[in-house]
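Structure, all two chains, one model.
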Amino acid sequence: MRRGLISRSVVELPDAVLEARLVRVRAAMRTDGLDALLVYTNNTRPAGVSWLTGFVPYWSEALLVVPADGAPYLVAALSFRVRSWIECVSRIGDILHHPRIGLRAGQQIVAMRKDAAVGVVDFDGLPAGIAADLREAGPDLRLTDASALFVRLRGAADPAEIALASKAAAIAQAALAQAGGPSLNAMIAAVERHARLLGAEEIYIAAAPDLARDARFIRIEGAPALGRHFALRATVAYKGTWIRLVRTFCEPGVAEQAAARLAEAVAFLPSDRGFMGFENFLVEGCRMAQPLEALMGSRLHTSIAPQPGALVSVQALISIDGTSVPAGAPALIGLDGAAGSLLAGPLFD
Amino acid sequence: MPDQQLAAERRQRLAAAMGEAGIERVVLYGNAWQGDYLRYGSDFGILEGHGIALIGRDGSAALYLDSASEAERAELEVPELAVHFAADLFRAVGARLEGGNERLAAAPRRFVPRWLVDPARRFKLADATALVDKLLMHKAAGEIAAVRRAAEIADAAYVEFRNAVRPGRRQYEIVADIEAHLRARGCPDNFMIIGSGGKDVLGMTPPSERRIAAGDLVTTELTPAVDGYFAQICRTLVVGQASAAQQRAFAVFVEALQAGIAAVRPGARAADVAKAENDVFRKYGLGEYTTNKWTRVRGHGMGLFADSKPHILEDVETVLAPGMTLIVHPNTYHPDAGYIVLGDAVLVTDRGAEVLCRTPRQLFEVTAS
């Protein structure tokens, strides 16, 4: 669910940016011989549709249909009463409202061409009911997985996306800087409130309440005891772009050392050699629709190296003088062999 | 941290239901939008990515997540489960399902990723949605206790909401106050939408940049969760003094809510509750505003999802029974005032409805200066 500000800014996400992305999508569709491209969206997987239209569903689900010719349209399970809201917060040619979005989208495509070649982004992950409804609407539709096509296009971030990620990082940094109060819940409340006041579309705050016991992050329910050293992680969405930032509360100078080592490691990305010697690490980024997908890390058997120019969020557990210190921040992979760099340093006054 | 005893009790109920249905293993799918089936079997409140729990009739339980951050969280929050991080989630789960002769099923099957139900797979997933729906709707004592606590938190949060609404403030600033209020009390989740304005407003949405103005009707659905269980309250307030037209309009909603709650009793159908609410609107010549052009549902179930079954609509035949928790809300547009919401969380008991919300059913007024 999304509880923060969902709005469209034509300054931060101009029509020209979205149109340029569509032009690239259509060119790739022509190369692959597709008559239409389908992109599914819900709370969990909003990033494909938001990248093309700015639309982020706070609830429910929708399918974006990008025809080879003509404006994209959204088939939404949200009711007609929120149509004007969808129009306000996104750039979409038309909106069709139907509880069975697969059926309605299929009918529209069949009306264009009975045996249309339809690429579906993340076809394997499409909800089974929607896939069945697409088949019911168009038994002759040629449905194929268009994930590879989309991944190629989304790999490197454009300037607008980098700006949105930078804003999300700035929100997280300002919010985490507000962490104060008599209890962990008071700190979390302060961070949450500040992030939302700064326009965060969503914020998830996780905590490692006592680093002496465990450095892993959990969602806090109730009133857990706070250790001498602890950490907070803010996962912030701003206009469809997600980042993570970690603030560690420990001895003076230790967090600074961890931040410096994280920055050094990030410089080597997409190679993971900078992370050697860390207790663990994780690199997440958006390839298709999941905002922060695991790409590389200690727990991954197979890495998916982020493309040059990609936005990622990096987390690591770094041993400093025998203490396990979590660190994490968003980063931008360098272009043409250039060093990667953090979008925001995990340092707080 | 989740209530482990409650989670164990749920898994026992699930195993018993699977036994009766002859199902040996069930695939429970969830994501941040619809996570109730997954939470029922795994007790994990998913926020990112896909999650699948494999629950065996023998009591075995494994949780598969495609987010590494979520997997790390699950290891701590649900330590009694075998947690697996699998970037290629569908194939990892598929590998566990292949090769046996077990009777398998999935819930909610229509949300399960297509790959897992593709005819090419060497296993078949029957539909266990109705089986799990029944468990989700009919709550045990521990589940009801969690809904009660959530309703108390909803009442307190609405007090905070009334304090937060002031002319000039933007909708998202008000929501920031409410979310902070809930986090300060250790409440990790809430579903909330808001509306403000006059007759131009047709419903509620996530917060916008719209500023509160004198004379606005301000509507909200507040739905905090305790141990994963949501309870909802719906109220409307006026910035300044309510006009006679607003008061008259609101009185229809009070009467409709009372009628709906009075219709809640064991053996009644969800349709009976909706009809009782809608008949009040019809009595005043407002029947058009009970249609799906103006309103979605006249209430719904509450539990591990903020919008659970049964939906309170005149064509829903689900029979109410003790232990069900619902919100009855005749929310809709009124042509003389705009969009109005009013709703209370209720528990179905042997004697009828027990109202869980304590906030008065009044059109609140907050200062316009």
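The CA atoms of residues 198 and 309 of chain A lie 27 Å apart.
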